[in-house]
Amino acid sequence: MSNERTTLATQFIRNRWAEKPRVGIVLGTGLGKLSSHIDLDVALPFGEIPGFPQATALSHAGRLVCGRLAGVPIVAMEGRCHLYEGYTWEDVTLPIRVMHALGAERLVISNACGGLNPQLTPGEILVVVDHIDLMRSCDRSIRWSAEPGGKDDLTRTAQVHAPRIASAYDNGLADLALEVARHEKFLARRGVYLGLTGPNYETRAEYRFLRKMGADVVGMSTVPEVTVAAILGMRVLTLSVVTNIACPDAPTKTTAEDVVAIASASEPRLRAIVVAAVKQEG
Description:
Elements: H1 2-14, E1 23-27, E2 39-45, E3 63-69, E4 72-78, H2 89-102, E5 106-115, E6 125-133, H3 140-143, H4 151-161, H5 171-184, E7 188-195, H6 204-212, E8 217-219, H7 223-231, E9 235-245, H8 256-265, H9 267-279
Parallel strand pairs: 1-4, 1-5, 5-9, 6-7, 7-8
Antiparallel strand pairs: 2-3, 3-4, 5-8, 6-9
Helix pairs in contact: 1-2, 2-7, 5-9
């Protein structure tokens, strides 16, 4: 089923945009304004693309944008879909499979996240170099593996591809992101992203527990997309905009509107890194 959905969606897009993208981009919460810097060829609402899930979260426009960024052909998602919206792993990762099928060899993912590391500050960019997956049980790779065939084929495919997950994040792209931050004089550092399904924010006890697990930030997306991209052999750069810092001993109220506002304010810094990653050769 996943192969058929990927083929139908890919062909629909190719019939409207013949270019081969070099890079796929996912624009998360509050970061959709980056798409205004894309030289637009085609913008397709998710609802028009066969099999695509439709975004319902705040500030997620739900469009696939095809064009050029810094002269490089790209395909970008204005917003994404989440498991908490009622979608499956296959649903939320379909756009990544389609980007790869269109020709993208690199994937740049952005998200808004909550800070667990007390050294972080709101508006800072965390360059993700690893993640902790608490979004699904251990049999997930069998269910959304990209190969056709029966259950035995899917099991074998999962076993073959699983080792790639250990190096899902591209070190070269992470180094580039940090170099851009140093050059532009804004805060960015390496760290670990922890994925939960949401949609609720964490309790004080959960904040303490997640930090002890080794996570620097927590969010409700990204892990499924990165995992599928790694299985497909794509080079991945993930950028998390820290929108609030967890203070379990003195908790403050965080709203979705606050998250969107802080993420939006960080867009110019994020854009500088994304443009550099898109322009990188190889």
